[in-house]
Amino acid sequence: MRCFVAVLPPPEVLDVLARLDRPAAPGVRWTHYDQWHVTLRFLGEVDPGEASVALAGLNADAVVAAMGPATIVLGGHAVVVPVSGLDGLAASVVTRTALVGEQPEDRPFVGHLTLARLGAPAPPGSVGVPLAAEFPVGEVCLVASHLLHDGAAYEVLERFALTG
Questions:
Q1: How many domains does the chain have?
Q2: What whole-number distance in Å separates Cα of residue 161 and Cα of residue 164?
C-alpha cells in the first residue's frame, strides 16, 4: 500500500486555507480540504503493519507548527504554504522508519502544505498571498494514498500521539 507519515492541521486552520482564492487556470490542479497535510516522510509501497510497528516506537515531543508568511512556488511544481517548526519531528520520523518502505530522501526537510500542483505557471493571485497560522501538533498520522484519475484520496490508517 502506498503510504506516508503526516501532520494534519486542525479544522480551524483548514478553514482558513479553504477561504483562499483558487483561480482556474490550464495545467493547474488545486488540492482540496480533505487532502491538506504536511508530509513528514513519504514511505512509498509498504506494509502498513510494518510502518505502524516502527511508528509505535516514536518518542517525540509535541510541537507547534507555524504556517506562512505567504504562499510560494516550491520546486517549480507546486503552490504551497511553508510550514516551520516540524524539522525535529520529521527527523525523528525518518529515524524510526528508515528501514521501512523507500529509502529516506537525501535532502533537507522542507515543511509545506500543497495547495496546487502546477503543470503550467502559477495563476496570478496564487503566489505571495499572506497567510499565517500556528497550531499545536500532538500526533502524527500514518496515511494511505489511493491514486485516482482526478488526484489522490487519503485515508488515515493510524494516529500516533506525541509526548509532552
A1: 1
A2: 10
Instruction: Indicate the pLDDT class of residue 164, thresholds 50, 70 and 90.
Output: low
Query: Cβ(59)–Cβ(106) under 8 Å?
Result: no
Q: Which three cell numbers stand for residue 19?
A: 477561504
pTM for the model stands at 0.94
Q: Amino acid identity, residue 59?
A: N
Q: Per-residue pLDDT averaged across 17-31, rounded?
A: 93
Peptide bond into 69 cis (omega under 30): yes
- Mean pLDDT, the chain, rounded, equals 95
Residue range(s) defining the domain that contains residue 13:
2-161
Which CATH number goes with the domain that contains 131?
A: 3.90.1140.10
Q: What is the pLDDT of residue 123?
A: 93
d(CA 80, CA 37): 11
Q: Are 117 and 25 in contact (CB under 8 A)?
A: no
